[in-house]
Design goal:
Elements (H helix, E strand, L loop, with lengths): L8 H11 L2 H8 L6 H8 L4 E3 L14 E3 L2 E3 L3 E3 L12 H12 L2 E4 L7 H5 L6 E5 L5 H13 L4 E5 L9 H6 L9 H8 L2 H10 L5 H4 L12 H8 L6 H11 L3 E6 L2 H9 L4 E4 L13 H12 L4 E5 L5 H10 L3 E4 L1 H33 L12 E3 L2
Parallel strand pairs: 4-5, 4-11, 5-6, 6-7, 7-8, 8-9, 9-10, 10-11
Antiparallel strand pairs: 1-12, 2-3
Helix pairs in contact: 1-16, 4-16, 13-14, 15-16
């Protein structure tokens, strides 16, 4: 099987499973506790039915729109995901290049294997930097300053990680450390010698966005991952968002909210957008699917915030349903990581082309020639 034989995002998942060590695949594919929220994120889209308006003149479909003040070719954002080089040697750069070619936003994670500056120079598309407010505010301030210098278009503050979720697959496969490795996982690593060479000899999978920052250099004695974990701050409040908004001064997304009340607080604190998300089911179990949260948030706050549906999107009809419910854009994470692991930048480019084609076809079949015209008249929730 090759990427040319992949006809949808989940085909890339099957190929990715062969291309990376078992432990790495399950880190990508896993979620918290019983993984019910993870499964529900996608399954929930089946509860929404599209209502086609026939004979509507759909000879030309316009997917273009404006997101975070930037014109984009279609309303999908590549979500921030950590350590892209563990999936493919070209890592974040491959994804940023593919996003630029597709005319959409690329989001870079703080926990990345490329630097802010490297990705700032990569690709032609607009960029978002995903940030945390760390215990050491100076480190967060340093990231903000670096993003300004590298001309990032927006930042996204992740707010749903006061502590790490209970990701049991990582315990089972041994990702949490060498002492937890089991024979099956060790054998899987040995079957991927190129991956081992990059990890152990080239060491190109390090979190260089952290280690390259002069402000964090004094805290690295304990180890990079230990240092990062020590910096997560469970005492954060909306006052800290106000501080970040004032320091950044540009488009600010709050990522990881699901209620109308939290979205209202985000707007009151200076945010310009919200990413409605449960972290791909990787944090709190038994949270609602993002698609189920969109309509009430849109009804209450669409005139104050841009709304991004982040989670579970695997098909173009999912994109259309989320937009019809009131989202301004959608965000995908695992969908493009499967493609990255399966085939690097060409894999991501093919995955995006397939998803865009599905979205365009769904628009034509539903009888709507522009995403600007999508609304509740095109979708109905069963029951």
């Amino acid at each position: 099987m090759s990427i040319e034989h992949c006809n949808n995002l989940m085909d890339f998942r099957r190929l990715a499973k062969r291309r990376v060590p078992r432990t790495i695949f399950h880190y990508l594919d896993g979620a918290a506790d019983d993984e019910q929220s993870y499964a529900r994120n996608t399954d929930a889209f089946a509860d929404y039915e599209l209502l086609p308006a026939q004979l509507s003149g759909v000879g030309s479909i316009d997917l273009s729109t404006t997101v975070l003040g930037k014109k984009v070719d279609w309303p999908v954002i590549l979500a921030p995901t950590s350590a892209a080089k563990i999936y493919h040697r070209d890592g974040e750069a491959a994804v940023a290049e593919a996003a630029g070619k597709s005319g959409i936003f690329y989001s870079m994670s703080t926990i990345s294997t490329s630097t802010i500056e490297e990705i700032g120079r990569t690709g032609d598309g607009p960029k978002i930097y995903q940030i945390y407010i760390f215990r050491d505010r100076g480190l967060t301030q340093s990231f903000v300053d670096r993003c300004k210098a590298a001309n990032y278009d927006a930042i996204a503050l992740t707010v749903d990680t006061p502590v790490a979720g209970n990701r049991e697959r990582d315990l089972v496969t041994g990702l949490s450390g060498p002492r937890q490795l089991n024979p099956r996982s060790i054998l899987s690593y040995l079957r991927h010698p190129g991956w081992l060479y990059r990890a152990l000899v080239k060491k190109d999978m390090e979190f260089v966005n952290i280690t390259s920052d002069q402000h964090s250099s004094t805290g690295m004695e304990m180890g990079v991952m230990e240092y990062i974990n020590s910096q997560f701050d469970p005492t954060l409040t909306w006052k800290d968002v106000e501080w970040l908004a004032s320091e950044w001064g540009g488009p600010l997304i709050i990522k990881g909210v699901q209620t109308v009340e939290d979205c209202r607080k985000a707007a009151d604190s200076g945010a310009t957008a919200v990413s409605v998300s449960n972290h791909g089911g990787r944090q709190l179990e038994s949270t609602p699917a993002p698609i189920d949260c969109i309509a009430p948030i849109a009804d209450a706050l669409r005139d104050r915030l841009e709304i991004i549906c982040d989670g579970g999107i695997r098909r173009g009809n999912h994109v259309v349903k989320a937009l019809a419910e009131g989202a301004h854009a959608c965000s995908i994470g695992r969908g493009y990581l499967y493609a990255l692991a399966a085939g690097g930048q060409p894999g991501v480019e093919r995955a995006l082309a397939l998803l865009k084609s599905e979205t365009e076809r769904t628009m034509a079949l539903v009888g709507c020639d522009s995403v600007a015209k999508l609304g509740r008249s095109y979708v109905s929730r069963r029951g």
